[in-house]
Amino acid sequence: MYKLFLDNHRNGVMILDKDFKVCYSNKILQQVFKKDSGERCGEFLECFNQNLEKKRCLETSRCSGCNIRKNIKRVLDGELDDIYIENVMYEAFIYKQKKEICIGIEIKKINKMANVFVAIEFFKVKMDEKLLISDERIMDEILDNIGDYIFYKDTSLKYIYANKAFCNFIGLKKIDLIGKEDKDLFPKYMSEEWKKIDDYVLENGKYSGESKFNGRYYKINKERVKIDKGNLLACVIKDITYEKNEMKKVYIDKLTEVGNRHGYDEKIREIFEKKNRSYDLILLDLDHLRDLNNNFGHSTGDKALKYVAKTLKSEGLTDIYRIGGDEFAILTDNTEDSFEVCNRINLKIKKMVLDGKKISVSMGLVRLKYEESILTNFNYADRALYESKEKGRGIVTKIKR
């Protein structure tokens, strides 16, 4: 009954013993390769190397490098229960001609009494661009045509599936990836970091984060997925470089190349959501910007704003935002005395002469208090800035609370 079913199955089916001898092949495989059972796997599949060297399968000089052989052995040895591999390429000698064959196969282990066998199901056999067997897994076909990087791992963190985009991204063939762990493929520092994330997902269910690699930005989503046999770890990695660059345009001030008001609003909200570090807020005004623009032209005023931004960056400040025409907001995490930093900035700017005109800035400084609102904290910093202006400009005022 089972033989009748398999003989008429639309996919190719082959059964091997532990010595790679073909114990059974169904009708469609026999028609494609013009072979019957009794020979070793490579001989049945008309391996070109076996024909070239006039040796049996497993005995040629190139058999040790055969990916089909390697993965059959991994299943036989119990390293994997089963493996599905798409687009395996090998050279065959068919109709007295050298042909390139492309196959998609699933290899499974079968235990019958004291004997061990391997079943190979052929979902695709392609020769000379012609599909001889075509019943590709719909989901795999869909995933292989998605640009995002997608893979699955089992609970031992071995790869059990990866789509074409991911394989191309890491520079490995699917057949060389399946059954491997990250530590087998990538540098230690990378594999250890990824293992921490994978362990977290298996324990907690989900992970979402961003990463930068080779100058590009990626969004990483991992999830524990329940299947019949237990759990697996699914991952989707999306290249978000374009979105990031477009987002930067929204949050960056074009003139000074520091953050803008939108950027400041995002950052201050993030700080108040996390509340995990102590921050100071500095408000800075470029003194008499209107007079600079009116008397010396807007180009001079623009130069002054750029110089202020450059001076702030020179002090190692990173969270800098131009929130108004002449006003900047700076957030510092107290790794250094913010008041001293402000005084150094003040002195540097006072030494600058633009188009024969000296410039100065006024600054107000306050320590953020999370028990108060964002607006209340801002108003305290604004009051400190106002005091600096009232005292004659070009100075720094800190309000202690």
Give an overview in words.
The chain has 401 residues and is of the alpha+beta class. It folds into three domains: 2-135, PAS domain (Beta-Lactamase, 2-Layer Sandwich); 143-241, PAS domain (Beta-Lactamase, 2-Layer Sandwich); 252-399, Reverse transcriptase/Diguanylate cyclase domain (Alpha-Beta Plaits), CATH 3.30.70.270. The protein is 38% helix and 32% strand. It is built from 16 helices and 18 strands. It has helices at 2-7, 27-33, 41-44, 48-53, 67-76, 138-144, 164-170, 174-177, 182-185, 188-204, 241-251, 261-274, 289-296, 298-314, 338-350, 374-390, and strands at residues 12-16, 22-25, 82-94, 97-112, 115-127, 130-134, 149-153, 159-162, 206-213, 216-227, 230-239, 280-286, 319-322, 327-332, 353-354, 357-358, 361-367, 396-399. The strands form four sheets. Strands 1, 2, 3, 4, 5 and 6 form a six-stranded antiparallel β-sheet that branches. β7 and β8 form a beta hairpin. α13 crosses α14 (298-314). The longest helix has 17 residues, at 188-204. The mean pLDDT is 88.
Q: Can you say what the CATH homologous superfamily of the largest domain is? A: Reverse transcriptase/Diguanylate cyclase domain
Question: Would you tell me the structural class of the helices and strands?
Answer: alpha+beta
Give the tally of structural domains. Answer: 3
- The CATH topology name of the largest domain reads Alpha-Beta Plaits
Broad shape: elongated
The CATH architecture of the largest domain: 2-Layer Sandwich
The CATH class of the largest domain, by name, is: Alpha Beta
The largest pleated sheet is described as: 6 strands, antiparallel
Low-confidence stretches: none
